[in-house]
Amino acid sequence: MISEAPAIPGELIARLRTAHRVAVLTGAGISAESGVPTFREAQTGLWARYNPEELATSEAFQRNPRLVWEWYAWRQERVRQAEPNPGHDALTAMERQIAKFTLITQNVDGLHRRAGSHQVLELHGNLFRAKCFTEDRTVEGWPESDDLPPRCPHCGGLLRPNVVWFGEMLPANTLRAAEQAAVNAEVFFSIGTSSLVYPAADLPIAGLRAGAMVVEINPQPTPLSPYVTFSLNGAAGVILPALVAQTWDVER
Ligand code: BV8
Question: Ligand 1 pocket, 220 CB below 6 A?
Answer without folding.
Answer: yes
